[in-house]
């Protein structure tokens, strides 16, 4: 089966260039970043539980997150919509909210494309930004500390609750419906010399850490005991028959940050940050892209994939 | 009904900025251009008569055309694919051809996004280019000559033949399946001081000329007697019960160029060009965006629209 990784690998083999395919955003020239993300009805969202304002918010935020992933400041955006007949009222509200979200995030909507869709609603956003020195995912070094910013597994838990119409605290559902890109945290981290590599967490911690390790030619070890969320998270997982650790490791769409920091400067970085930095594990010598655990865990860890995961 | 023009007008009201929504490509800063175009299965193409190589060619060319529209040189491209289960073999060939087309056109594929699609195949391409002095559609002046480059109506004729499985010369079907952006012509035209405004012809001559006039705050008159195509075109229209003049005026997807040139320098421009320039009409004083004809024509001219035209 042709999945996202295979497509990207195929394209990589044919287009090996600095700043080319591989990072969350591509580097056009010097400090200019660009990225695009698709949101497809019944793959990424369902109209029955996603109001237009939330979808507009998310469509922008997942793209902002690609720029945040590289320590960039988003500046311009283009919006593509393939619009089915029955979604016209919905899209009217979507447009108003999208415009509003752009204003709130200081990005300028400069163009786009609209067309009919035979059935489903498709949203395609292209985002442009700038980064003085873009932080790549390919520059982690053995001995670095692996860190995360943002909640892990919240969005996946929320998605499962929405899909099964299970009553759990709103916070988790909102994490899926209206995620926020970690722009401010990313800008601060990218200004710190001790941060060695960075990306956003869109496909789940485990998958994204493997990608970071693969790109950097290293391995990593996750300290399982550092991954615990709060009791409400655990109770909500129980209500849905989900294993909390599995949700934390593999749940996608949280749009936090995954980054590595030099071992001897980690304490200082954490002390100076005005947001919570989670210590996840460390970069180790090993097979490129491999992620080990600090202790044995008995889980069947299916990787998050956009291909038919709903 | 919310159509493309209404969506764009809505966005324009909220985002009035130089180089903002309105032209084929948006100006990011100074000389940097960006544009995006969606291609949707069963709206823009059908898998039953569109081979993967043709679709890849077209997906790139329609985007190249947006840069050509402004006299720009395309440089980078991003590719988004929403992929249904049954299209995986098709997309494998599509990718190979897309990569090849990028090489041939000296554009670098630097990123993109792939995901599942519940049903139809969606292609979303973002293109970046540069133009020393971008040519806008909003700068035509009263008295200018209206010109076109490329065939008019060929693609629409081809589409109608493909849809009805009618046997007409391959040239017309190819015009729809594998259009070519007028990059070289556009680069030459944009270097000529006498060219006052330009855009590409993607929605049909009449619709696009109305857009150019509206943006420039002028009107135009089309000289009907200059619009004749060749006898094979006319015979093929007959075979499909189509009025040749109507096809020339309203048929979309030709991806030629529409431009205006100062009256007193038109002869010189035409003499110096190493490609055919068609004299279509002239820019006149009148209601903003209105297009008149040199003589009465008895046609019901439906405007080309991407919303459910197939």
What is the count of helical runs of chain A? 10
**Percent in helix of chain A:** 25-40%
Q: Strand order, biggest sheet of chain A?
A: 7-9-6-10-8-11
Strand content of chain A: 15-25%
Largest sheet of chain A: 6 strands, mixed
Which ranges of chain A are low-confidence, i.e. pLDDT below 50, for 5 or more consecutive residues? 15-20
Tell how many strands the DSSP assignment of chain A holds.
Answer: 11
Could you say which structural class the secondary elements and strand pairing of chain A correspond to?
alpha+beta
Order of helices and strands of chain A: HEEHEHEEEHHHEHEHHEHEE
Arithmetic mean of pLDDT of chain A: 91
Alpha-carbon distance between the two ends of chain A: 17 Å
Instruction: Give me the oligomer status.
Output: homodimer
- Outline of chain A, from the CA principal axes? globular
The chain pair with the largest interface is: A-B, 62 and 62 residues
User: Rg of chain A from C-alpha positions?
Assistant: 19 Å
Description:
The structure is a homodimer of 310-residue chains. The first copy, chain A, has 310 residues and is α+β, with helices and mostly antiparallel strands. Chain A is built from ten helices and eleven strands. Chains A and B meet through helix 1, strand 1, strand 2, strand 3 and helix 3 of A and helix 1, strand 1, strand 2, strand 3 and helix 3 of B.
């Amino acid at each position: 089966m042709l999945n996202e990784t295979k497509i990207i690998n195929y394209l990589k083999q044919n287009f090996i260039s600095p700043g080319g395919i591989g990072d969350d955003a591509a580097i056009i020239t010097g400090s200019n970043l660009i990225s695009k993300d698709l949101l497809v009805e019944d793959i990424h969202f369902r109209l029955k539980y996603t109001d237009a304002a939330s979808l507009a918010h998310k469509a922008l935020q997942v793209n902002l997150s690609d720029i945040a992933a590289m320590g960039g400041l988003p500046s311009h955006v283009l919006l593509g919509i393939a619009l089915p007949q029955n979604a016209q009222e919905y899209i009217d509200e979507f447009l108003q909210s999208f415009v509003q979200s752009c204003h709130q995030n200081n990005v300028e909507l400069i163009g786009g494309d609209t067309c009919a869709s035979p059935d489903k609603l498709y949203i395609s956003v292209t985002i442009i930004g700038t980064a003085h020195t873009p932080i790549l995912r390919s520059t982690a070094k053995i001995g670095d500390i692996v860190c995360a910013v943002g909640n892990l597994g919240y969005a996946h838990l929320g998605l499962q609750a929405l899909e099964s119409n299970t009553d759990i605290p709103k916070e988790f559902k909102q994490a899926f419906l209206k995620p926020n890109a970690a722009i401010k945290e990313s800008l601060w981290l990218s200004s710190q010399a001790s941060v060695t590599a960075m990306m956003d967490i869109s496909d789940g911690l485990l998958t994204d850490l493997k990608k970071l390790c693969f790109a950097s030619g290293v391995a990593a070890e996750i300290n399982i005991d550092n991954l615990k969320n709060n009791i409400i998270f655990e109770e909500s997982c129980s209500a849905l028959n989900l294993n909390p650790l599995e949700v934390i490791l593999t749940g996608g769409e949280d749009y936090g940050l995954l980054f590595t920091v030099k071992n001897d400067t980690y304490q200082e970085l954490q002390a100076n940050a005005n947001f919570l930095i989670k210590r996840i594990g460390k970069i180790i010598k090993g097979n490129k892209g491999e992620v080990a655990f600090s202790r044995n865990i008995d889980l069947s860890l299916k990787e998050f994939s956009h291909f038919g995961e709903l």
